[in-house]
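hi got a favour to ask and not much time before my train. below you get a single protein, a line of residues and a line of whole numbers that encode the local backbone shape. could you go over both lines and see whether the tokens make sense for that sequence. a few lines back from you is plenty, here it is:
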Amino acid sequence: MRPCCSLWFTSCCVDSSASPEAPSHSQSKDVEILVLRHQLKVLLHGESRDPYPVAAGAGARKRTYRRKRVGGRPPLDPNTRELILRLGRENRTWGCMRIQGEIAKLGIRVSATSIRTLLRLEAGALLREFFAARRAGTDL
């Protein structure tokens, strides 16, 4: 672990002309700025120590965890999903662009690709349900 004497040394030697008994206002501000910069650097750097310490005579443990991927498009609101599916069911001739336009009039921003994907997933589920009923010998 690296000692932190460089920050202490720098803070003591900011203004060598000032007397050590009574630090000036500018010297104390400079020291405060240095300390705040150091704190920011430490916080941005994060924890750098290995979470698996190596015991004497033991080999290093392999890290088997994976980082959670952050990012991507947030999921659609359930109310918006239901609205898209209802518009798709009630208006079979409307495409995803028409549904997007109608939803945009309500002030809801949804991409046409999201609407298309959602409608295709719903159509696939309906087809699976239809074929399962046919295999069972009942009509829907």
User: Anything to note?
Assistant: The two ends are 71 Å apart (CA to CA). Confidence is low (pLDDT under 50) at residues 1-5. Residues 112-136 form the longest helix (25 residues).
